[in-house]
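Researcher: I need the complex structure. Ligand is 2-acetamido-2-deoxy-beta-D-glucopyranose. Inputs:
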Amino acid sequence: MQVLMAAFLVWSLMSPQGRGTEAWPTHTACRDGSLQVLYQSCDALQDFGFSVDQCPKQLKPNLNIRFGIILREDIEELFLDVALFSKGLSILNFSYPICEADLPKFSFCGRRKGEQIYYAGPINNPGFEIPEGEYQVLLELYTQDRSTVACANATLLCS
Ligand SMILES: *[C@@H]1O[C@H](CO)[C@@H](O)[C@H](O)[C@H]1NC(C)=O
Ligand SMILES: *[C@@H]1O[C@H](CO)[C@@H](O)[C@H](O)[C@H]1NC(C)=O
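Model: Output:
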């Protein structure tokens, strides 16, 4: 997994910028017996690597994730917006602070534009059972001045 993620980062580093209208490839964040999570970068400028070590549909708290990206912005402060849809209907929106000036939750908080970050470790998430169905999720990571750091649209298939 480490090697794969490193290879992925090198590959995204080397990918030419300004890809025009071409979409980024679809990646699998995790696949378990009954749950599959696919995502695609919706940032015109870059792709990023993301995976979840295990994804049972009965989600456990403190999932271990891996995330790698090259920063387009300084991240003194970093926020995540999530919008969840099912069959085109909006179900849930939430915003979550990841790095705050006085409360940096992760080692990568405060890193600078141009740096490559790679995080492998737990995130503090609620544990719950995902109801069967197909969901669309829009995710955006952005900074204190509302500059996008990463953007993704994901499909979650739970059977
Ligand atoms: C992301 O959105 C595009 C455009 O709406 C869609 O074609 C694609 O299937 C989506 N990808 C995922 C992984 O949900
Ligand atoms: C989530 O945000 C979208 C766009 O801002 C809005 O249209 C939608 O009604 C919101 N949904 C909920 C459940 O608040």
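Model: Summary of the prediction. The helical segments are 2-14.
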